[in-house]
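Retro notes, item 3 of 5
We never archived the inputs for the iron/sulfur cluster complex last cycle. Fixing that now. Sequence and ligand:
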Amino acid sequence: MHRYLCFPAILAGFLMAVGCYAATDQQPTLTTEDDLGPQVQQPIEFPHYRHAGNRNTVDLTNSDPTKGGMEINCQYCHTYARRSLTAGIPPLQKCVGCHQNIPSVRDKPRIVELFKYWDAKKAIPWKKVHDLPDFVRFNHERHIKRFIEQQGRPVQEVCGYCHGQVKEMTTARRQKPITMGWCVSCHMKEHVVVVANKDGIPEGGTPLGKQAYWYTFQKPAETKNAAGELTAKGPNDCWLCHK
Amino acid sequence: MIDSDSVKNLAGHPFDRRDFLKVLGWGGAAAALSGCGNTSIEDGKETVVSYVEAKDYVIPGVAVYFNSTCAQCDAGCSITGKIREGRVLKLEGNPESPINKGKLCGLGQAAVQHHYNPDRVREPLLRKGDKGEAISWEKAYALINEKLAGVKGEEIALLSGDVSGHQKVLLGNYMDSLGSKNHFVYEAVSPAVVRAANLKFYGVEMPRYRIDKAKVVLSFGADFLGTWVSPVHFAQQYAAFRKGVDGQRGVLIQAESKMTLTGANADRWLAVRPGTEGILALGIINALGVSTGDVAELVKDYDKARVSRDTGVEPSNIDKIAALLKLRSPSLVLAGGAAEGYVHGMQNAAAINLLNQVLGNVGKTIEAPVSVPFPQMAPSKGRTAALKDLNDGLAAGKYKVLFNVATNPVFTAPASYKFRDNMAKAGFKVAFAHYLDETALQADLVLPLDSEMEDWGTHVPEYLADTVQINIQQPLMERLHANTRGMGDILLALVKQRRAEEYKAFDDYYGYLRSAVLQNKAALGGAGSDDDTFWNDTLSNGIVKLSGASGALSLKVDVSGLKLPAPKEIDEQYPMNLIPAVTSNLRDGRHTNQPWIQESPDPLTTIVWDSWVEMHPKMALQLGIVEGDIVKVTSKTGSVSAQVYLFPGIYPDAVSIPIGRGHDAMGRYAKGYGVNPFEIMDAVFESATGELAMHETRVNITKTGQRVIVVKDEGPAGGRQMGRKIAARVSTDQVDLSKEV
Ligand code: SF4
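Structure as it came back at the time:
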């Protein structure tokens, strides 16, 4: 056995040493284990927490950055996410649209920088924080339709499934592995199916037969969980992501 | 044999497959998560550039579509470009166009590779010895102005391809302002002789053909599915024709010396001795036996025996065709490129058109075209005779300044023209070019053009499928390279040098086009709508459709002067006919540098990225040649060497080399692939029209001793498939495998 184990063990050990996993005795779980990406240097240190963070509950009007955010909906700026594959970065116009009416922060270094780009009509060269290989076609729109529109879950929670607690960050940093195994781990879970209305159509869903999940060729097998709710797995057709 | 138990024993430990996989899986998982798996993910490395200001309809990841016009050939198909994040990705046909009804040919599809081609010229280049020095546009314009000073109008020549629409108007005005009438409209491959014959027999140059209404189509080398006039349109007519009129599936007979794509689709394909197409047509008229008067007099000598001897078509086939044509009416007879490429090409085409008259097809499957209400925008169609005239003028030193609008005569002129040398006699040569092709390399000043996906324009196709249509060409995306310009913009800048006052209202060609269209708003069907709405509608439709009056065809049959020569005697020194083949991918070779064109297999031979000499297996046997032999094809003018491809779809006395390859410039995807048959083409001309008789060259074939394996899609390499019979059916227990191998 030793001989057989030797090579893979060395390989595994080597890779772990190189990679960002600490070698442990336990097999890393592939499910929701957070996997921090590199801290990415951005041209402007955009404070997500200021925009999307929770309000200062004591004083709702407090604009002190350390005390609270503005709870702006993620989709206000990342407006393309619900309409397209890509979430997109908001056009500069969007930033300026608000900030030209907020004189109080106008002389802050980041805002000064922002207006420099705007005056020069130059795009900001943001660095991509969540990069997928070219052969993967992730669709933001579908996930938003599914979880926000159909199931009515809170926006920040839904975005957070993949992006983590962005509202607590300045510039975003990858929080999850975003590997195929990690994606599949969620698609393999038994999710509660949206209750159908009296016509047998899931509330808010696309009425395509009685399918619980309508973005796939095969209707996933439905089961009932302990609470008696109808559950089904997410779609797992290869072509869904690998077109 | 090792069973699973012994594996366990070997390991000295109970060790099953599962364990092994687990171990591997461990390594694999670690790799996927930490090392290899993430290497293609470059978090924090790629830049995502967002818009500064985004248009409302722009959603990253969601495509938008704009209509424009395909400029890969002159058929004028309308296209719809898919654009994402400001980049054109894919072209489709515009369903609203009666010409292509939502379809597009392979050549049209490849247009994106013209646009994104890495070998495009990006800066105005001024010749400095052997090199081109990048200069600014201002300097280039000033230079042209300077060089034109003191030059008389008749000493200025301009060469272009087919041109129509507002660009033609502007081009005309510029030449006018220079006082020059020397606008040469040249296309290397054009049905100019057929046009002349049509004019004589139908009263119009390009009637509307109705393949879809015909019950029999007899085509003399008209490759209407691949290359002829408006192939995408004809392919759709052909589909209707095959579905049938009154439940009768149309029958296609193709008579030609070398099988074309259309010939390969025919129900009956007849190999005709090169140049005898007209004789066959007269023979069929004779066999029909319905004509009287002049016509009967003309065909009386063309009995089956003689026609068969002359053309190589069996008498029984002539009878069958005549019987079929009698039985099924209306039919349609077409004269294509293969019939017109001879000294007596006009006679051939006339005889073929006469057959249509005799069969009563004129007015039924040959209809009068609609006339374009703005004659100044109607297309000027290219002729090969125009290049000859220009070449003669250049040789005589008549021209001091030569403008060349994106044509490539150095590549497509027969070598005996010595066009390259003659061109040098013009003191100042300006090439408006997309690439440094053979001709642009000879110029003194090269001005880089926008691709068709960056430029504005209007086009009026010659072959109008339904109503008159003015096709709009509009940019599908921003310029890829900052310093290219649209031909319209260049012409406007040049004409402003002469007639500043007249054109001062227009900042650019876009402005000119917009105001020209809006001025005629009422005539263009926009009466009553306001300017902006009409203009925006026009752009979003991509086509302006107008009703035009259709004239009448002439039904008068005039056979005076119709006289066909007897087939040529075989020349001992040059016994074979050279057929320069026009293929649906390559056409005249202006798109050879689009890799999709190079790599899509020729429809008949499946050869890619290379030229070939097509030869009948019988002839090859006679000459002791096998497939893959490199042979030297020699004419009076010169010789080229290429691999032999054996193909039964060719008249045994002929060899064929495709046109379009063999560039020695034009960038990395064109240069050095294959050979150029224009290099060995004799300068022989059609007697009535002066067009280049492209099929008149005689050649001989010699082996060079080299042999290659022909890279092709079908059969085992080396021609072993050829001549094999399909094995007789033998029941399996009787097969003797030792004999089969
Ligand atoms: S026939 Fe093909 S190349 Fe010509 S215009 Fe139509 S699509 Fe374009």
